[in-house]
Amino acid sequence: xxxxxxxxxxxxxxxxxxLGAAFLLAVLLVxxxxxxxxxxxxxxxxxxxxxxxxxxxxxxxKHGYRSPNxxxxxxxxxxxxxxxxxxxxxxxxxxxxxxxxxAARRLQNPTAVEAPPAAAPDKLAAFDPPSPQRxxxxxxxxxxxxxxxRLAGGCTSGHMMSGMMQTSLSGYLFALGAFAxxxxxxxxxxxxxx
Amino acid sequence: MKIVLALILGFGFGFILQKVGAxxxxxxxxxxxxxxxxxxxxILLGIGSSSLVLFLLLALGLIDPGHLSxxxxxxxxxxxxxxxxxxxxxxxxxxxxxLVGLGAGRRDALxxxxxxxxxxxxxxxxxxxxxxxxxFQELGGKATLATTxxxxxxxxxxxxxxLLIAGGIxxxxxxxxxxxxxxx
Lengths: 194, 184
Prior knowledge:
heterodimer; A: mainly alpha; 2 domains; two-stranded antiparallel sheet; about 0% strand; B: mainly alpha; two-stranded parallel sheet
């Protein structure tokens, strides 16, 4: 058991079952896991610090708040409410995810994760440790990922994992789109070898 | 109570993503360029096993179908998926794994999250114009293949036992996970 927590990486069997258990437990106890909405909430919280008008209380709205921005005002001011009252399940969940990543990383053998597996530098050598260009690519990729996720109404967690778990049509459509773009892009950028 | 659950479930999910290698961009890119399918196998097993148990519990009446949350299907789900896929391959992170990578102390994850906040903000500003375009044309709405027992969601295959459909798909996912080579 001790080894299990200190291992650098779990086998696909252990990892897959652990992932399955996490998604299932979340539905059993609360609701399906989703992440990308919280990027909207975080933006809204910052925006709200600098604006008196972006989120205002409105007793007639379903969730008690409204916004002049159509997206934040969506679903009866649901996002607006979570911006005005940030201690919500969704935001605390993603903040706890950051802590979970921190703890897992601390328990991993640092040399095992940092060092590239091959002695010779390969095409992904700029990833570990990340080079400045790599960081710029991560920034540009992040912009696309979150714009796409919000247009789709969910990301890899909400649409792909939680969605396909429930056999929801949107999950299959989303996974199709995501892999149809991601696989050719990765092959084009890095090729299959090296 | 809900906040305590958010802490526990979020922490566990973040921990698992890091331990399965999903928050390591090298592993993601190697999966996407079909070189190392370790993660793909884990993802397929994760979806398959959770779906199988979920529909078993639904059939036994041991889980409240009200907890389910099915997202709507419209053109933007596919287009958004394509845009996300492009960024996923460039960055090697998706929203959840970027946050976990940030917790794990990766500098590129910090840049990813900053880019993500900007991308989400651009979407917030554009949604008003986009919502009247073809991108929001319906493609079935909130639909599932198997009946969930939650009246808010349409079942596309209502005549068949839900456990048979969901369980069948789950078994196929698990078999694919088993059969796929680890490294290619």
